[in-house]
Specification:
- This protein has 146 residues and is of the alpha/beta class.
- The chain has 2 domains: 51 residues, no CATH class; 87 residues, no CATH class.
- Helix content is 22%, strand content 36%.
- It is built from 4 helices and 9 strands.
- The protein has a 5-stranded mixed beta sheet.
- Helix 3 packs antiparallel against helix 4.
- The longest helix is centred in the middle third of the chain and has 10 residues.
- The two termini are 23 Å apart.
Length: 146
């Protein structure tokens, strides 16, 4: 998990991602290996630089909303619907309901409540559901929690 590699990013691409390329910031990169035989070490030709949050959103295939029974007033369902419908997309949303004994059930919301995880602002939902209540879940089942 340590090491280094020479990277090159051409001017046009770098101009698009300049704000993400900040010293000491953890980020993800996309690119291709240039295994040119004239160099002793391969070079990575970068095409994109992404923040951790951008990578979570782009790798998202489901959104999970955790709700504890008894912690929210009845109208919170309307608030969830209101926020979700502002960001329509193709990503399904699941409501993960926890009871007082710690048991949980997952309820998949209808197709009218699918979201665009690139546009969704989890903080809007966490304002009334609570911190850590929104999970962006990747296609391999990994949870990309906020």
């Amino acid at each position: 998990m340590t090491g280094s590699v020479n990277c090159i990013m051409w001017g046009d691409s770098f101009g698009k991602h300049r704000d993400v390329a900040v010293e000491d910031r953890i980020c993800f990169v996309k690119g291709a290996i240039d295994d040119n035989s004239t160099r002793s070490e391969p070079t990575l030709i970068l095409t994109r630089i992404l923040t951790v949050e951008q990578m979570q959103r782009e790798g998202c295939s489901e959104v999970w909303l955790r709700v504890k029974l008894g912690d929210h007033p009845a109208h919170f369902v309307d608030r969830i619907a209101e926020v979700i419908q502002r960001y329509p997309g193709t990503c399904p949303v699941w409501l993960v309901v926890l009871d007082s004994a710690g048991r949980q059930t997952k309820l998949k919301l209808g197709s009218g409540y699918r979201v665009n995880p690139l546009a969704l602002k989890p903080v809007e939902l966490e304002m009334f559901l609570g911190p850590g209540s929104v999970k962006l879940v990747g296609s391999n089942g990994s949870r990309n929690g906020r």
